[in-house]
Amino acid sequence: MTLVIFAFVIWLVAWRVNVALANSAASETRLVKLVVPIIFGFTILVVWELVVRGLNVPLVILPPPSIIADTFSAKLPILWKDFVQTFVKGALSGYLIGCTAAIALAILVERFDFLRRGLLPVGNFLAALPIIGTAPILVMWFGFDWHSKAAVVVVMVFFPMLVNTVAGLSETTAMQRDLMKTYSADPWQAFIKLRLPAAMPFIFNGLKISTTLALIGAIVAEFFGSPTLGMGFRISASIGQLALDMVWAEIVVAAIAGSAFYGIVAIIEKGVTFWHPSQRG
Fold first, then answer.
1. How far apart are CA 217 and CA 132, in angstroms?
2. Could you say which of 28, 92, 136, 259 would form a disulfide bridge with 224 (CB–CB 3.0 to 4.6 Å)?
3. Is the pLDDT of residue 275 over 90?
4. Could you give the CA distance from residue 15 to residue 37 in angstroms, rounded to a whole number?
5. 280: left (phi over 0), alpha (psi -120 to 50) or beta
6. What are phi and psi of 68, to 5 degrees?
7. Which pLDDT tens digit goes with each residue over 160-175?
């Protein structure tokens, strides 16, 4: 119980420090914006460790972060192989295929009105289908290797990417399009110089949403059939063995990979859409 009280005290102290930093004159500086989440995350880990050990929580319910870290370092070769199988082969390949196909089709949808009227309602219907139902079907169609996981990812990212891109390509105003005509711009020039740049914030919004969907889709697909590799396979097998420390180690890998993937896309967005008001300052 002493550890629990100590954890409560640490939480209160960290809370006061974060409040003071957030309300200080330097709250908008890059250093404070970096320090506040670091303190918050570190506090959660410390409190988690102390509460679990203080209450003697069984490992099969919730292992402390120290044991998860030990498992992570001890099983690093296995975790790396699972990462390559799930993220590099399944999630990343499906992400690239799905997003590229969605952008290409969005250009056609925006160009031809009958595709907008006929395809988008069907796309909204298919996007509403639960992945837990479509994943087993795609695994049976494409086999148990990474190809079926990539197919699941394509299905998950395709329609959000399509809807965002179509909305972006329709963002330009009639005055902007008329101005391009006064410059004697042909349709292709108007697309490259006006509609595509205007759509970039929407496209990157879809790309960032799809980063998380891609990893989730690949992991879920591995629950329904996989070779003896992959984060989804390892999580499912470890739960059956009550090895919760390995499950949490895989979750850490997934969190790091997903955050890094999202961050890379956000950095690219900042470089491409530097002119947009959301990227200024």
1. 9
2. 136
3. no
4. 11
5. beta
6. -60, -40
7. 898 888 888 877 777 7
